Amino acid sequence: MTEQRRRRDVLRVLGGLSATGITGLAGCTSGNETGSTDSPSGATGSASPTGTDDTTATPAERSVTDAVGRTVAVPETVDRVVGLGSGALRFVTYAGGAESVVAVEQLESTNADRPFRPYTLANQRYTDLPTVGTRKSPDPERVLQADPDVVVYGYATPDEADEMQNRLGIPVVVIRPGGLTQDLRDRFFGSLDLLGTVLGTTERVETLRTYVEESLADLQERAGQVEQQPQGYVGYLGRGKHGLTFTQPSYVPFRYGGVANVAEGATGSGDGGGGGGGGGGGGGGGGGGGGGGGGGGGGGGGRKGARRIEIDPETLIQWDPSILFVDLGTESYDALEDPQYEGITAIENEQVYATMPTRDYGTNFGTVIADAYAVGAAANPDVYDVDPVEKANEVYETFVGEPVYDGVADAYGNGFGSML
């Protein structure tokens, strides 16, 4: 098709150049950079042709509207895909496109220092694929060498997507994965639906949509049956050296697991980064409210509702949660044995449990659901009468194609269950 022929022409030109990244490519294609292919955000009509014919569908192409309102002409059949940016490869996998992936970002390849995400564990071939640069600096020449039919770009702005598309001569489709809470769920399903259309996997996407909707409805119903939600706290959120006092005021597994977050509404210093499937909304029910409210911060710069925050040890002691959860994405859990915390009810009664990281290069959406069942089973076993390990394998098999709970647990050095 025309697009593919043009792509090969660009590859031949690049074959005579040294690898100079985006800057070098700009010299070859700068004539097209000012031609915007945007429609207003949320638009559904076709975009006007620009300096290239990227958005003008030929008989062998289809027009789709991506998550930022751009109209993009994609091939009738998509056999080769590259994902760039947070959530792109994850959602290609969710949508049933794993076998179409021809290259990955360096982050997604083998790295002994970084635990793997469930979709990578389920698709070991990803670790052996060529890389297309880092997550912050994708290498356009490497993308072209991979020869994808479509590039899926997570969380790109319209300008970023247009720039990449014009430089590559390859359709670039933007997704914004959203979250599993009510206020962000349309984006989650919208991104899945978009990729189902692009990849020709709409039946697979509909199967996943049904499973997610049924799982969230089940969790929400169970949460509503909890008459008095226990006061819970989750710490150690985030990969690296974050400690027990690094938490999330809107931890989604609590909302669906029937646990009142003592940090709800708290402020503190934090990175404000997304996590846990998005803040707000959720499926909480029954009695009990968050006990945090005021919560002191670990420094300035905090803002109410920040997705992850650092609090003072004194604040955690004051909150005195009756059950405590540990996100397994960090390096050490020594604070659980720190004498200053030994009077906290959860630690004193050995009600400390592990959850899998809900966030690693974007939200691990399957893990959010698996964690919600694990939280519920630990905090409200009479209502959440499920085996969390069996449920996690069911979730992972549905989301990424394989029951990889054991692999996830091995990667993080622990699994669901008591930490004391």
In brief:
The protein is α/β, with parallel strands linked by helices and 420 residues long. The protein has 14 helices and 13 strands. It is elongated.
Describe what this molecule looks like in 3D.
It comes from Halolamina litorea. The chain is of the alpha/beta class and 420 residues long. It contains 14 helices and 13 strands. The strands form 4 sheets. It has a 5-stranded mixed beta sheet. α11 links the parallel β11 (323-327) and β12 (352-355). α7 runs antiparallel to α8, α8 packs parallel to α12 and α12 (365-379) runs antiparallel to α13 (388-400). It starts with a helix and ends with a strand.
Measured on Cα atoms, how large is the radius of gyration? 23 Å
Instruction: Estimate the helix proportion, in percent.
Output: 25-40%
Largest sheet: 5 strands, mixed
Q: Mean pLDDT across all residues, rounded?
A: 82
Terminal Cα span: 61 Å
Structure annotation, total helices = 14
Low-confidence stretches: 12-55, 272-306
Structural class: alpha/beta
Q: Helix and strand succession?
A: HHEEEHEHHEHEHHEEHEEHEHEHHHE
Q: Report the strand count.
A: 13
Region (Disordered): 25-64
Biased composition (Polar residues): 29-43
Protein name: ABC transporter substrate-binding protein
Biased composition (Low complexity): 44-59
Which features would summarize this protein structure in a list?
ABC_transptr_periplasmic_BD, five-stranded mixed sheet, 14 helices, alpha/beta, four-stranded parallel sheet, 34% helix, 420 residues, ABC_Transporter_SBP, 13 strands, elongated, ABC transporter substrate-binding protein
